[in-house]
Design goal:
This protein is of the alpha+beta class and about 70 residues long. The chain has two helices and four strands; from the N terminus they run αββαββ.
Length: about 70
């Protein structure tokens, strides 16, 4: 489990996400909580990437997150 978590952090860093970024949507599905993100990512089995929308300060940004292999 620790390696999966480390892989997720590394994938987020490669996507350009930073500590403090506020995720607002994934693949155009609004996110209301970290649980919502986890549920959405669980549904993406077999898909190599997800488009994330987020706020950094007052700026809306978009990035593509390549998911670590299972």
């Amino acid at each position: 489990a620790a390696s999966a978590s480390a892989a997720s952090v590394a994938a987020a860093a490669r996507a350009g996400l930073e500590l403090g970024d506020l995720l607002t949507a994934a693949n155009d599905t609004p996110l209301r909580s970290s649980v919502g993100l986890a549920l959405l990512l669980d549904q993406l089995t077999g898909r190599p990437a997800v488009t994330l929308h987020y706020l950094r300060g007052n700026e809306a940004e978009t990035t593509r997150l390549v998911l670590p292999p299972e």
